Amino acid sequence: MADIKGDGQNLSKPGHIATRKKTITRTFRIRQQWDSVLQEEASRQGVSVNVLLNKILRKYSLYSRWNERNNDITLPQRTLKEILKTVPGESLAEAGTRSGALDAINIVNAMGLKMDYDSFAYLITEHLGGPHFARWFHCFHHTQGNKDIFHLQHDFGYGWSVYLEQYILAFLGSMTAVDAKTRIYDYAVTLEVTLPKSKPI
């Protein structure tokens, strides 16, 4: 038997992940070998089994179930790097444009999100760029006045930057109409979005 307590967060929708909610206690049976794995991994991470299970359930609720329904695959980093080396930059850019536009529509509709800028920001910072989900890149997000800056850092080489630049622009363009520009580096892409200025009250 195993007990699990919620961490006080509503995991039903990405837009509500920071909302504090009442926790519950749920008891269920698992195989002893899985319990041994949980105990070992919790010890390795320096957390309790309850905390580890909540991390696992959070990832499943906000990412893995959509990943599985979309038949996504996982590749070792070295495999992706080798593939990227063989593809011309022009082809990578074209693929990024096509994939970004389609993925925006598919992901938003599958997850029940709104087709707007807030959903874009969530998907880039957490779904694609957070440390626990897709991990296409590590997203550093900050605001300067009416500009949103997304710095997408990765370790896959210039080819991945070429693909990402066009993917993110197409992804953004499919979800909302804002002005955006990019800067591309060997191991990063910086996206600068100009937001409409707030009207004075």
Largest sheet: 4 strands, antiparallel
What is the strand content?
15-25%
- Poorly predicted segments: 7-13
Number of helices: 6
Fraction of residues in helices?
40-55%
Could you list some keywords that capture this structure?
201 residues; alpha+beta; four-stranded antiparallel β-sheet; two-stranded antiparallel sheet; 6 helices; globular
Summarize the structure.
With 201 residues, the protein is of the alpha+beta class.
What does this structure look like?
This protein has 201 residues and is of the alpha+beta class. 48% of the residues lie in helices and 18% in strands. It has 6 helices and 6 strands; from the N terminus they run ββαααααββαββ. A 4-stranded antiparallel beta sheet has the order 3-4-6-5, with helices on one face. α4 crosses α6 (158-175) and α5 packs antiparallel against α6.
Map the helices and strands.
Elements: E1 2-5, E2 25-28, H1 32-45, H2 49-69, H3 77-85, H4 89-111, H5 117-128, E3 138-144, E4 147-153, H6 158-175, E5 179-185, E6 188-194
Antiparallel strand pairs: 1-2, 3-4, 4-6, 5-6
